[in-house]
Request: fold
Amino acid sequence: MPPVPRFHSSRDDGLYQPIPFAFVTDRMRQCIEHERQVLLDALSPTVRARQEKVFQCYDPHASHRTYQSILRRFRLAEKQDGVRQARD
Reply:
């Protein structure tokens, strides 16, 4: 388990609350998914089921789609390898 999750905050009941980012890059989405899997893998089956329900309240894929839509609106491509390029 990560010592301090980057994309989730701990709750008083021992579960993790997703941090609801409005815009999520592809890399960020991948990191959120990985962190979720690490957190889930560390839980017992009973607690895991409760945690999965909490995770369902925030979909990083939806935030990534929103981010992509905004980039498309301004005719920009998502940054790849440190370089952002305008689309023709």
User: Anything to note?
Assistant: The mean pLDDT is 89.
